[in-house]
Structures are given as structure tokens and as C-alpha cells.
Amino acid sequence: MDRTLAGDLARLPELLQAARDVAAREVAGLPGRPVAAPGPAPGRAPLPAEGVGGEGALAYFTERWAPGFSGSAGPRYLGFVTGGATPASVAGDWLTSAFDQNLSGAGGSRAEELERETVAWLRELFGLGAEHSGAFVTGATMSNTVGLAIGREWAGERLGVDVSRQGAAALGPLDVLSGSPHSSVAKGMSVLGLGRDRLRRVPLLPGGREAVDVAALEAALAERAGRPVIVVANAGTVNTVDFDDLRAIAALKERYDFWLHVDGAFGAFAALSPRHAALVDGLDAADSVCVDLHKWLNVPYDAAVQFTRHRDLQVAVFHNASPYLGLPAGEPEFLHLTPENSRRLRALPAWFSLVAYGRAGHREIVERNVTLARRLGAGIEALPGLRLLAPVRLNVVCFTLAEDPSEERVARLARAVAASGEAFLTPTVYDGVPGLRAAFSNWRTTEADTDRVLRVLADSACRDVN
Question: According to its UniProt record, which cofactors does this protein need (predicted)?
């Protein structure tokens, strides 16, 4: 064994203690550090010929790279839809690496059953029935892709084509209908050989809504009668967190034959709050569901879950047959359910957080974030230099400049906010107008953080944009 490696093994407790100290300082200092990383990255160094050991690497990292990392785990990083990592989930994530379980199958470990237990808890959390089975994947993009892949197999079954064996070409054109699809849907269609051009956008409800017009969806289904179709419904759009009427869409299945996939990447968490649970009424009727956990469950990247009512079709798509793996039988091992063979135990951080804080703790995070989003929205409405682009429906505030909201001026506002170190927002275009989004999903965010974001927005809109 290499002497440096042997030395690290002998001093593993000290190395882990040193890493713990760095991590603890980082987590404790998040509220006070710049939210966006200032300045350029250091130039690339050559590959070391000789190692310096774990503690040397830790020192090099903290000096050279750590200062340039963003405060994305902190309370005022409102870009994209970004959660933090609860203390318990951080502990679970550390242990995930320490135990280093390969969740391709049981492999003499009970880790697989821990994932099954976690998936069952999540199924209950989101109001799904026992007919839904699931597995952990890397994120919403992969969860949506898995759902579409199973839907593609379903379409083949309707047409007498074994897509998993014959390929997507044997299936022929397969339309995917959606009102406001997330970009990951088109990406998944590209990966699956369905083609981005088969994504058909269905008209939306009037009045600046991002929810699909169910009557228009029915007309689109009627036009395609006799041909399988996939419908992607949205439980929370990215810009305004608008919700399709899932119950009404599911009712169309009585008259039309289609696969219903629901993208509930973060909107599915409305189910945790009695005040907002009606938004996801009908989610249980979906054939497949996407939920992203490193968003509103606040577990470390990368973690999402996919659910489906059709495990047999899922196995048909993803099974991996070889002498050393065996064929799926009974309760399929996870290597037969997702694109990956080797899989990290992503369920452990989620398991830790669910045990540590329970349904009530995670409900409090959701409801507090919604309250804070509305607080920021009300503050923006009161500022003369800014205006809301849409109502604050849940946890995202979509807004722009009150005057001349050009792409250049809005981008300048975003840069000014980031340069302040106080907050980070991401751009969007809503109804043809460039704007910004502030997405609340971090467990640490407070009223004081929200007020700091509002102050920097007011200051930046006044000084840096005009």
C-alpha cells in the first residue's frame, strides 16, 4: 500500500475531524458569506506527481477553491429552485460515503431495504397510493426521463411493439402533449429517441396562466384518437408555480387512451400543507410522477425520486440481464428499475431528514417558504422600480423592472444583486417579458433574509440599472 495512503488510514479519525471542522465552519458561516462567488477562478494546476495526504489536500482545497464556492446552501440563494441541506441530511450524506454501499442490488446488504422504506415514506408524504412504486435517481431530469421511458414502453405495448427490444424507430412518431413543459422533458425525449420536435404545446388558460387549458388538451387528444399519446402535466411550473388541473386531466382517461406523467419536481411538496394540498389533488391518478428531493426536501445533491403504477413496464425498459446479476424476480432490485447499475445510497440522507424532522418539520419548511415568498412579492409590489409579472401562487416570485424591462437591463439587475453578495436570482422570460425569479425552498430562510433581499433589490434597481 502506498505510504501516504497507509498514513491516511492510520490517521483517519484526525482527517475526518479536520474535515468536520471545515464543514462546521462553512455551515455556521453561510448566513454571513457572499451568496455568489466573487472574482475569477484560479488557474488550473498540474496533476500532482506525489500526493500530500488527506490533510494536505484539505488545506489546499480550503485555501485555493473553497473561497470561490457559492453560498447555494444558504438562506438567500433564491436562484433556480435550490434547497439547502438539513443538519440530519448532512450527517446521513457523510455516512453514505463512509458505508459506501452500491445500491445496484442487495449484495449482502440491507441498504436496499432502507431505500424501499424511504420510498414508501415519500409515497405517503405526497399522497400516492400503494400502487405506486419508486426508486431514487439523480434529479428531476432523470426522473422525468424515466417516466417518459416507461410511457414509451406503454405506447409500444398498445401498438404491439416491444420498444425495449426493437427500438424507438419501430414505435413510430409518439406525441407528447403539455402546456408548460420544463426543459428537461424535451431533453428526455431527445435521449429516448422520441425527438424534441414531437413535444406538442397545448394552449394555456387565459389571463397569463401557465396551466393547460383542459378543453384544448381534450381536443388535442381527440385529434389523435387511436394513436397512443403521452401527456405531461405540471404540478408547479418553474416561473409562477401554476398547477394543471390534475383531477380533470385524469378524468379524460375515461374517454382517451394516454399515459399521464406528472412533473411535480417541487410543486408536489404542496401535498405537505393542508392549505395547499388541493393543488395536487389527482396526483395519485398519474401513471408516473417526478419529484426532486434536493429542492424542497432539503437533502444534499443529487437526489430525486420517480414513481410509477407500472413496474412491469419499468422492468421491461431497464432490466439488466447477465449471469452475475440475474434476472428480475419478485421485488426487482434497483438495477432493473433505473438507467444506473451502480448506485449511491441516495436514500440515506432523505431517510435521516425524514426521521429527524418528520412530516411536521418538513411541512413547516414548506409553509414558511410560501409565507416568505408572499412577503417578498408584497414588498416588490410596493417598490416603484419593480413589478410582479404574476401572482405569487406558492414559493416563487416572478418579477421585472417597472420601466423598460429589456433583457439587458434585467440582466444588469441580476448582476448587481449577485455582486452585492446579498442574494442570487436567476433570469426568466414570462409571457415574452424578461424577468427574474426568486425561488424559496431553503430550510434556513427567515423573514430577516427576505427583507435583506428586498433591500438589495430596491437599491440595485435604483442605482445599478438606471
Answer: pyridoxal 5'-phosphate
Residues 93-129: tens digit of each pLDDT = 999 999 999 987 767 899 999 999 999 999 999 999 9
pTM over 0.85: yes
In single-letter form, the type of residue at position 463 comes to: R
Q: Given CA atoms 264, 266, 270, 271 in this order, what sign does their dihedral have?
A: positive
pLDDT digits (tens, 9 = 90+) for 196-250: 999 999 999 999 999 999 999 999 999 998 899 999 999 999 999 999 999 999 9
Cα angle, residue 289 at apex, residues 283 and 291 outer, rounded to 5°: 105
**407-420 helix and 447-463 helix, angle to the nearest 10 degrees:** 130
Q: Please, are residues 466 and 391 in contact by the beta-carbon 8 Å criterion?
A: no
Listing DSSP states for 89-117 in one string gives: HHHHHHHHHHH---TTS-TT-SHHHHHHH
Residue that the C-alpha cell 433574509 belongs to? 449
Q: Which residue do the cell numbers 409579472 mark?
A: 389
- Find the mean pLDDT for residues 130-152: 98
First to last CA, the chain: 63
Which of 424, 409, 425 has the alpha carbon at shortest distance from 461? 409
Alpha helices for 325-346 (secondary structure H): none
3-state secondary structure of 165: helix
How many degrees, rounded to 5, is the angle at CA 297 between CA 337 and CA 24? 115
| 258: nearest Cα among 224, 282, 291, 281 | 224
- Write out the DSSP string of 397-425: EEEEESS---HHHHHHHHHHHHHHTS-B-
Q: Which of 296, 214, 202, 275 is nearest to 249 (CA)?
A: 214
Half-sphere exposure of 395 (CA within 13 A, CB side): 31
Cell of 391: 401572482
